[in-house]
Amino acid sequence: MDSSRSPGGDPRARRAASYNALVTRPRCIAITGLNTFLGQRLAERLLAQPDAPRVVGIDLRRPLRLEGQVSFRRVDLTHPTADGEVASVLSDERVDVLVHCAFRSSPTADREYDHELETIGSLHVMHACSAAKVPRLVIASSTMLYGPRATNPNFLSEEHALVGHPHAHCIQNRVEAEKLLGEWAPRHPDVEVCVLRHCWVMGPSYVDHVVRYFERPVIPVVLGYDPLLQFIHEDDLLRSFERAALEHHVGVFNVVGRGVLPLSTLLALAGKRALPLPAPLLHRLANVPSQGQTGDLPEGFFDYLRYLWVADGERGWHAFGEPVYTTKEAWISFVSSRRLQRFR
Amino acid sequence: MAGSGTGSATPPGEDEELEVLHLALRDLRREIRLRTGDASVAAPDAVGAPATTTDLPEEFDWLGLLQELRHRLGTLGMVERSGEVDEFGMDDITLDRSRVLLDFLMDRYFRVEVLGLDALDPEVPNLLVANRSGLLPYDGLMLSHAVERWHPRRERPRFLVADWLITLPFAQPYLARLGGVRACRENADRLLRKGHSVIAFPEGEKGAAKVFAERYALKRFGRGGVIRAAVENRVPLVPVGIVGAEEAHPILFKAYTPARAVGLPFLPVTPTFPWLGPAGLLPFPTKWIVKVGEPIPLDDLEVGALDDELLVSRLTEELRGCIQDLVNDALERRESVWG
Predict the structure, then answer these.
(1) How many structural domains are present in chain B?
(2) Hey, is the C-beta of A335 within 8 angstroms of any chain B C-beta?
(3) N or C: which end of chain A has fewer CB within 10 A?
(4) Which residues from B are below 8 Å from A260, CB to CB?
(5) Whole-Å CA distances, B40 to A271, B30, B59, B101
């Protein structure tokens, strides 16, 4: 079950491996944000396991697909006493692992609510974990938090500073949440924390603002830049989260696909036309259509198509296994699935 | 066709067939050349020979170069990208297509004379350290091209490019595809760990920004990053002196005010540059000499010894002196700037 049992691996991995052998699998896993892509699919995968753990879902809305299979608890993470509510759910259900993925897949125009949900909501979840003495916490994060910068090294390791993007509020919220986690975790050494930072997800069914951007036939790009991008396939993403929930992995992991491709090559592979525009114009245009009211591109998005922010996935591959899809295969899987959908 | 030969063993018939094909191809090429009126280069050899010969080819493929340039103009320089790049963005197909251009620059334009390449160990990654000169990274390109030609397995070292250049719009896509990597310790370590040779220019921006009056006087060498990279990755540290690149882009003086508007550290003023527009960026056809020195012995140095900052700075200074000597030797060897 664990690929981390390699002789002479890093001591933490060896310790985790021996720990795995001793400790039984978790019997109850709670998922915040059950209605997100990640939450829902992860719950399905966990329930399909041979000796499936019990799954507790925490969200605002009752999921339609998983009715009757998960025990659903309605908690509003933006509520000031949400920490107490989550804590009582966690101790009632005797939860072994909490997977926190109640984050926005795409930023909305309601900046205040986004901040309450992502930053303060995460803080509530952390506090609930320590109050209910949950032994393990798995948090979904993103390699976008490293921030696109001209001075990034070609491969960002997990230790790299989280700079984010000054104008992308959702990124800043999550950077702040990770900062809070960094302060909280040392005070609660009895909770094992596992942070999974994943890159842009591609696949047949995943949708967010990035995917919607790439779905267009003509794609505006930044004139004069052709950054290397990396993707992870949705199946690989879910497998990594599943293993993070079921096994003992501690620390921060980049969850990315193997290989990188320049943006121009990606568009050529997909047969899409690129529309190169100067960066200042693009930044302005991105925010014009509806002043951020309906799903147009978040601020700062084009910087992610301008500078390098590729993460080094070595540690994640070692812990959660080799990804099945490379960056190119994930991209092709996305493109070919969209081609079929056009004829639906 | 007896095409069922298993793997390595080629049936004898196949060699002959190949030979016939080669001859036919050569005749065809000659025919094309005669028809396009380029009779002076209609000599029949050097066409079938692959571009892997290390010595100067007898005849240069002018037609190929012309076609290549026309193709490039039509597509803004990006021709036949491959669907795969390596993890630092180097693209083999772009490189293959550019080889004609690089050969031309090396053999005809700069007439690069490469000395002492045998000091390199082809079995291990090498850290080559050279003096930086000229605005555009022709020195890195030429040195990596020279090493690739010499290398028995045609492995191409990557050259590190200073921030201001690799983040320049339009420069970055091309540099990355040709093997340029942003200069920082993380990148150098990763490349060496993965078995690629690396060309570093520790003078960095200061080197490229040298005005003509201070040519071939090496600037301060970074903060000892090269020494640390060589010792920590246990790779040979090879000094290289490059002469000629300095005069290819002679900077008369630097203008700061107009540069600020476009976000550059300075605007170089060469005899041609702002005056002739982009055409002013073409380098002068100077005579180049690349002199590779003996590797600097660092084997007795433990990684722990690097905590001694004074030692690191002394070694860095030694390395600088070594490269300065190589540059001076090469300068003496050269008869004139135009060679």
Answers:
(1) 1
(2) no
(3) C
(4) 85, 87, 89
(5) 43, 11, 11, 20
